[in-house]
Specification:
The protein is α/β, with parallel strands linked by helices. Helix content is 42%, strand content 15%. It has eleven helices and ten strands. The chain has an eight-stranded mixed β-sheet, with helices on both faces. A two-stranded parallel ribbon has the order 9-10.
Length: 325
C-alpha cells in the first residue's frame, strides 16, 4: 500500500527507504531555501544533483551541508551558473549541459522571485513573468533532449496563482497598472500552464510534467515584503480561513515545503501527477473559478490547468523568446 503523506511531511518522510543512486536531477535555484533542501534531500539519498544559481559564491556557502550529506549518502552535487532573468545566461547554461550530454531523470524548476518592484529582465520582460516563466521555458525546452524517457519535469508554482490568470495580450504590463502580486499570480499560473503543455507534448516518451505548490514557508522569496504588510496578509488569510471553518495559517518548515517537490519528482507514480497541480504531497483538486476560497486553501483554479490556455501560452512564449520548441 502506498504511503499517505500530509502537509507536515518532510523530505526525509517522503524519501524514507528510497535509494536514488543512478538518478541524475537538475534543481534550479540552490542558493537558499527550498532549492538547497531539495538538492540536499535528493543527493543524500544517492542522486547525482546538478544545482543552478545566479550567484555561485553565495550558493557555495549555502550548500555546504548538501555536499556533506551527498558524500554520506552516496550521491553527488555540483553547480552551474544560471541567471533566469537573462536569456543569454539561460542559453549558455543549457548549451553547457547539452555539451556534456549527460541525461537527467528529473528537472525541478525551483528558482523564482516574488512580488518584486516593477522592472524588466535583461531581455525587456516584466521581471516576474520573465524570470519565473520565460527563463525556465527556454531552459527546460532546450534541455528536453536530455530528459530520459520516463523522466519528469516539476515546476514550482504557488497558491498565489489564484490572484491572476495569464494575460497574453499584455504580459509585460505595458498597458495594465502594475501590481506586484497580480504579476506574481500571472507568473505562477504560467508555471502551471507550462507543466500542462510540456506534459501534453512529451508524455508519448513517458516524460511527465507537474506543478508543485510548496506551501507557505519563510524563505528569501519574501524579501520584497515588509514585515507589517506580511502580517496584514496573514491576518486577512486567517479571517478567510475562519469563514471557511479552517484552522489558522501556520508556516511550514523548509523540509516540509520541499517535500512536495521530491514527492512529485521521484515518489509519486507518473500517471498520478502528470499534467497536474500538486500540494501537501498529493494531487490538488480543481476549484471552479467562481468558488471563493482563501489564498492558502487547497486547490487549483480551472484556468491554470486549461489545455487550450496552456497551448496559447506556449505559442506566445515562443513568440516572445524568439524560439520554437
Amino acid at each position: 500500500m502506498a504511503n499517505v503523506f500530509s502537509p507536515t511531511s518532510t523530505t526525509e518522510d517522503v524519501l524514507s527507504g528510497l535509494d536514488l543512486k543512478g538518478k541524475r536531477i537538475l534543481v534550479t535555484g540552490v542558493s537558499a531555501g527550498l532549492g538547497v533542501e531539495t538538492a540536499r534531500a535528493l543527493s543524500a539519498h544517492g542522486a547525482q544533483v546538478v544545482g543552478t544559481a545566479r550567484d555561485l559564491g553565495k550558493a557555495t556557502v549555502a550548500t555546504a551541508q548538501v555536499r556533506k550529506d551527498a558524500a554520506v549518502g552516496g550521491g553527488s552535487f555540483e553547480m552551474v551558473a544560471l541567471d533566469l532573468a537573462s536569456l543569454d545566461s539561460v542559453r549558455a547554461c543549457a548549451d553547457g549541459l547539452l555539451a556534456k550530454a549527460k541525461p537527467f531523470d528529473v528537472v525541478i524548476a525551483n528558482a523564482g522571485v516574488m512580488a518584486t518592484p516593477f522592472g524588466h529582465t535583461a531581455d525587456g520582460f516584466e521581471t516576474q513573468f520573465g524570470t519565473n516563466h520565460l527563463g525556465h521555458f527556454v531552459l527546460v525546452n532546450r534541455l528536453a533532449p536530455l530528459i530520459r524517457a520516463g523522466g519528469r519535469l516539476v515546476n514550482l508554482t504557488s497558491s498565489g496563482h489564484r490572484r491572476a490568470n495569464v494575460d497574453l495580450e499584455d504580459p509585460n504590463f505595458a498597458r495594465t497598472p502594475y501590481d506586484p502580486f497580480i504579476a506574481y499570480g500571472r507568473s505562477k499560473t504560467a508555471n502551471i500552464l507550462f507543466a500542462v503543455a510540456f506534459d501534453q507534448r512529451h508524455r508519448r516518451r513517458g516524460i511527465r510534467a507537474a506543478a508543485v505548490h510548496p506551501g507557505g514557508i519563510q524563505t528569501e522569496l519574501s524579501r520584497h515584503l515588509n514585515a507589517s504588510h506580511a502580517q496584514d496578509m496573514i491576518e486577512q488569510m486567517n479571517k478567510q480561513l475562519a469563514a471557511e471553518g479552517q484552522p489558522a495559517f501556520q508556516w511550514k518548515t523548509v523540509p516540509q515545503g520541499a517535500a512536495t517537490s521530491v514527492w512529485t519528482g521521484v515518489v509519486a507514480s507518473p500517471d498520478e501527477v502528470g499534467g497536474r497541480y500538486c500540494e501537501n504531497c498529493h494531487v490538488g483538486r480543481i476549484v471552479a473559478d467562481s468558488v471563493t476560497i482563501s489564498i492558502i486553501s487547497e486547490g487549483v483554479r480551472g484556468y491554470a490547468v486549461d489545455p487550450t490556455t496552456a497551448d496559447a501560452l506556449w505559442r506566445k512564449s515562443e513568440e516572445l523568446v524568439g524560439e520554437q520548441f
